[in-house]
Amino acid sequence: MLDVLQSIIPIALFYSAPLIFTALGGVFSERSGVVNIGLEGLMVMGAFVGIVFNLAFADVFGTATPWVSILVAMVVSAIFSVIHAVASVTFRADQVVSGVAINFLALGLGVFLTKQWYGKGQTDMVSQPFYSKNIPLLSDIPIIGPIFFQKVYVTSYIAILAAIVVWFVLYKTSFGLRLRSVGEHPMAADTNGINVYSMRYVAVILSGALGGLGGSVFALTIALNFSQSTIVGQGFMSLAAVIFGKWHPLGAMGAALFFGFAQSLSVIGAGVPFLADVPKIYLTIAPYVLTIFALAGFIGRAEAPKANGQPYIKGSR
Fold first, then answer.
1. Among 6, 32, 198, 264, which is most exposed with the fewest C-beta within 10 angstroms?
2. Cα-flanking dihedrals φ and ψ of residue 133, to 5°?
3. What is any Pfam family matched here (predicted)?
4. 225 alpha-carbon distance from chain centroid
């Protein structure tokens, strides 16, 4: 049993990290009242920038390259998300349509530039990805150490820490109170001197940064290169995690861990006794089926922030 857990948990955490980061971005955006269907596109942009930067600067930054790559991906994706913010907040466009446009634009731009720069449909494999490692001291703890702290990716634990930080920001700071207020009752927030438009811009840009972080972490731990099939549904899984987690950072993290585990089934299935005889195709499609169930409200109906998806017009009722 210990061996089974040791094979399952690190891989599940490994697949969960990108989903956690991106889902946290979705929580920021939707808590402010802006629906962000574009999480998939933000992940694509993050994956593209992370890989291209890594390939270009591996000789310059050495072993620090993946860390610098994810920071650059965060910045570029944050800037890219301004398109969604301008369309949704300033021009009051349909937020779902704007998010879908972000998805198409990111993928199209990424694939086009990849073909232009590398002369083929995918980039080369990176030479400086993230590597799994044993966490000092913690990996020596009996029973718990081998399961949770041996051959793990540091990014997995950074993602969990990030969820706790986002929870603190949203529920224990004045910034979080203002952000949640513009997502629940923007007119009341405006009356109290809160700039609804600014808060929503900040929330969407934060979702862009976290979505880019999720995409770049996925690319630099799992895919190791970029192509049109690098990010295939992970952004939508993250969106499902936001809904499944009831728009709460810790709930979204829990849902992302669940979806990450579902994604890992196709990798670990052969080594798990009760999954060994299940055809691999079923394990491969499992995360997508579970995502559909979550989005359809299979687990229980969740109520979104009251003003989610509603453009705000100053002075209107």
1. 198
2. -155, 165
3. BPD_transp_2
4. 18
For 213-236, give one letter per residue: b (16+ CB within 10 A) or e: bbbbbbbbbbbbbbbeebbeebbb
Tokens coding 158: 């950074």
pTM: 0.95
CATH number at residue 258: 1.10.3470
The per-residue pLDDT for 277 is 78
* Tokens found for residue 245: 């987690």
The CA–CA distances, whole Å, from 265 to 9, 94, 268, 275 equal: 11, 37, 5, 8
| 3-state SS class at 133 | strand
Choose among 295, 281, 285: nearest CA to 237.
295
In a domain, 310, yes or no: no
Q: What's the mean pLDDT in 287-310?
A: 79
Contacts of 151 (CB under 8 A, 6+ apart): 10, 132, 133, 134
Q: Which residues contact 278 (CB under 8 A, 6 or more apart)?
A: 269
Count of structural domains, the chain: 1
Backbone angles phi, psi at 172, to 5 degrees: -125, 5
Which residues, in sequence order, are CB contacts of 91 under 8 Å at separation 6+? Answer: none
Residue 134 lies in a domain: no
Residues 6+ apart with CB under 8 A from 144: none
304 assigned to some structural domain: no
Greater confidence (235 vs 277) lies with 235
Q: For residue 279, what are the domain limits?
A: 2-129+140-295
